[in-house]
Amino acid sequence: MVDVNGMKVVLNHDGTFKDRQEAEKVLSLVSSRAKARVIIANYREDFIEPPVPLDTIELERRASRFLNTRPKAALDIAEELYRHGYISYPRTETTIYPPTLSLRQVLLELTHGEHGNYAKTLLSMSVRPTRGDSNDGAHPPIYPTRGATRQEILKRFKNERYWKIYDLVVRHFLATLSPPTRVERQKIIADVSGHRFSVDGLKIIDKAT
Q1: Which among 91, 121, 146, 195 is placed 20 to 30 Å from 81, CA to CA?
Q2: Which active-site residues does the annotation give?
Q3: Who's near 39: CB < 8 A, 6+ residues apart?
Q4: Could you report the per-residue pLDDT of 26-46, keeping only the tens digit for each?
Q5: How many angstroms separate the CA atoms of 81 and 87, rounded?
Q6: In the CATH hierarchy, which top-level class contains the domain 56-176?
Q7: How many CB atoms lie within 10 A of CB 100?
Q8: Residue ranges of domains in the chain
Q9: In this structure, what is the dihedral angle of CA atoms 49, 79, 158, 114, given to the nearest 10 degrees?
Q10: d(Cα 35, Cα 200) in Å, to the nearest integer?
Q11: Residue 209: its pLDDT value, please?
């Protein structure tokens, strides 16, 4: 870890070590107030595409990864949200919005909730949803059916996790209607006491708005 203008940056050693003793020797060498010298700095502009509509497996995966919520717990919460009219039926394998679903109407409903400002931004644009490649023929992808605030969700369910799952569903839905995000991919290679270290970074240039 090095200090870059007050920010802590973790550098990864580019080589391999034969044994623990060799690794500890290098660690001792670079830890003794050594300075890093940048030898390569690459910056490349790129675009991150928005996700495809949300199905059950992806809901569980994202809840586990980003919310530290187990898949079964996430699905149980999603079913409660569905029963109370906040999201669509959460058990689905479909990743394509059906033509019968009015996406603009969903956005209009969301203008009454916590995510209203961004919903209004999307309403001012041409709505072009992403689409996956699966359709179970029974249920549409998971999407919000009611605009709500965090306070409303907490008052009804008395549990922060319900808000987090609802928020995940809404944000994912909004992302599927958003344009790609322009980013800058960064790669820095530095020399520290004769050893090469590298770090990769990502900087958002333009948000998808």
Answers
A1: 121
A2: 89
A3: 189, 190, 191, 196
A4: 777 666 566 767 888 888 887
A5: 6
A6: mainly alpha
A7: 6
A8: 2-46+184-201, 56-176
A9: 30
A10: 19
A11: 44
